[in-house]
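Provenance and format

Records in this collection were gathered into a single text stream. Each protein contributes a sequence line and a token line. The two records reproduced below are adjacent in the stream.
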Amino acid sequence: EARYRAIVDEHQTEMICRFRMDGALTFINEAYARYYGAVRGGNFLATVIEEDRAPVVELLNSLSTEKPVGEVTHRVLIAGKERWLTWIIRRVEHLPGENTEISAFQAVGRDVTERLVMEAEVRSAQQRLSESARLSSVGRLAASVAHQISNPLTTVIAEGQMLLHDLNPGLEAYVSAEAIVRAGWRAQQVVDSLMKFSASADEERTLVSVGDTIEQALILCSAQYQAELINLVINLPETPVRVMGFRQQLIDLWINFLLAAPSLTNAPAPKRLHINATLSQNGYIMLQVLVEGIPSDPDLSTIFDPTLIPTADSSSNGMEMTICREIIRRHQGSITVSTDGDFTCFEILLPSGGEA
């Protein structure tokens, strides 16, 4: 054993251990002892988080003379924090001093938490790049479509105004012509907003009114809210507040929020949504978005993760909340989510640029 320890302990960074089928450790090297703060006589399986234990036991049972080696990754708790370990486990037969036919397993492992985190960050970055390219293409398409809609709208509005000029205000046709003109201007307003939404985001950071960006977003989202019977209540300070940021990105933030937030909870229509803004004393603007109902997914930690395959009954594309979080981060802000059983609360903090 002294010779064995000299081999596995000297300059050895991987953890090495030997244990029986029941997990009882018969040997650990210094790296293993340092990692766990363990001593000989512990139990290998006891270190594995209970939810991950079954795959480890399944691997041990599957090892045979024909297939003596396997690999498994599982979680452990170290200093109260979850860590990920990967082990190469070999079935060992007829060890000296052991009477059983299959006496032990020998395992070589290492902590792969940082690697897994980096891989997740790379995948997330790749998703963001892919989504950015897709949104860029959609933006160019939206600009083209909006331009094609704008031209006939100009004709509709002009012809409606000519009808108003020729008709007697007392006629029923006059009322219809008025409705045509109002609808035309309303559609033109939406098209203009869509053109701005799809425009290039190469803008400079300026002082932007929070209330103004919300109002611009509502122009594009109000029709959907009416169709889905969503009651929207907005409470802003009497004195408008501003943030130092990118105007179009903040409009995008509210558009994505207004489109996605109602679909995240299980409350039936009609549904209530409140937006409250206050100027805190620490130089931040606090915005609370309260959506009636509790999240359909109880795991609030994943609510900002991209859902590339949204459900059929969802009006969102699965990326809105991810985009919201990224826009808030670009503005040196933060966003958290909680629920009290009646409402789901999104709390947004943005650095204040002062009162308007």
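Adjacent record:
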Amino acid sequence: MSRRLAFAWFAVSLVVYNLNLRPIASGDTLPAALLPFSLTLDHRLHLDRFHGWYCENVHGGDAAPHMFRATANHVFSAYPVGLPRLLTPFYAPLIVLLRVGEWPLDIQYAMAMSLEKVTASLIAAAAVVAFFALARRLASARVACALTFLFALVTPNWSISSQARWTHGAGVLTILLSLYWLHRSSDSSRPLWTLFLAGLFAGLSRAIRPTNACFVVAGGLAVLCFQPRWKALCAYAVRPLVFGLLVA
């Protein structure tokens, strides 16, 4: 029953999040929408492919939009790049098979905007499922469903996270998954494995949004309080340390 409910929450949320049938433009999320194309087609983290065209055709000739950071030779994202890098393997087959690199830049840009909305709504709907799974461990099915309804449709998970790929959308998903596995470690026959998964998602949350380092530290403190063993802390901390070094 819980699996059916989880699937139902995912399907309903995804439909609701896409009822407007259009992306909501936001300069803040533009680099995250374009970077998978740059990484696949140019094999670089810079946004040189799109910068000149965007400034001339979309941004009214302004050569220094706030979402870009220009160096002497290249233009980069002004925002964290963890999420677009994680999503690039899912973009790459479609971009390669459709030979998107041969398309005009305006068509590439339109495709990037559409895929941004699709992936943002998928991430937000997955967060609803993660929230339901966590709530179900803490409360009855009726209470969990009521709380999930509030999370899915009465919070910015709908109005913001599902509409464009801000970093906090995926950050919420990874934090919820980390909390879920942290809670499961308390009654699991393989607590080190569940703590490893909790640390994996905590580390991903940090890679996606740097301020989530606060959550990583809080999770480590929780492990020390409730499972005061160095093995447990190491199982949790190894992934955040690895992802932190990669991001640095």
